[in-house]
Write a structure and sequence with these properties.
This protein is of the alpha+beta class. It is built from 6 helices and 3 strands; from the N terminus they run H-E-E-E-H-H-H-H-H.
Length: about 190
């Protein structure tokens, strides 16, 4: 029992108070020897309920060892004022954007997309050419027709011996015969 008591009292005596944050959480450090190496242990004692979300970013960085020095109260006040200014600027920009949209006559509000919402792809799909489109004269559209005509011309220019060789799935050639828009997947 005395061994447990001595360890507990050593734990309490060896800790050093480093600081406290706005929420009342208190931060401590203790240096101890582990495997022959002096290591620094850092921890927080929460005020009230253990809520890790109440720890400011600067203190989290200190706890994780990303900062060598603990944040000072002056630094925390300066960072809090900066966060407040950024928040005010964001609110101002949102207000200006809403006013600009009202002046331009745009009445719809932009809502954030949730998991169930999907983007409207109708306008995107309408921009894509459809390969089976036929104009009023009964001819295929120029985009698909030029692809077919180019392939037919290629077949006419190839000698009879080359036509009998099986086509390889691997690309061959120097690229001199490349024409944009003429590639078709192998069938």
């Amino acid at each position: 029992m005395s061994r447990i008591w001595s360890r507990l009292s050593a734990y309490i005596r060896n800790r050093t108070f480093i600081g406290a944050d706005k929420a009342g959480n208190q931060y401590y450090v203790r240096t101890e020897q582990i495997d022959g190496i002096m290591k620094e242990k850092r921890w927080v004692e929460f005020k009230g309920e253990d809520d890790p979300t109440s720890i400011p970013v600067e203190w989290i960085c200190w706890l994780n060892g990303q900062r060598k020095r603990a944040p000072t109260p002056e630094e925390m006040a300066m960072l809090e004022a900066r966060r407040q200014r950024v928040k005010e600027n964001v609110d101002l920009l949102k207000k200006e954007e809403e006013e600009r949209k009202a002046r331009e006559g745009i009445s719809r509000k932009i809502t954030s997309m949730g998991k169930g919402d999907r983007p409207d792809l109708k306008s995107f799909i309408q921009q894509l050419p459809v390969a089976s489109e036929v104009d009023e004269s009964g001819k295929a559209s120029e985009a698909t027709g030029s692809k077919r005509n180019a392939k037919e011309r290629e077949e006419e220019n190839v000698p009879h011996q080359a036509k009998q060789e099986p086509e390889s799935a691997e690309p061959t050639g120097s690229g001199a015969s490349f024409r944009p828009g003429t590639w078709q997947p192998p069938t």
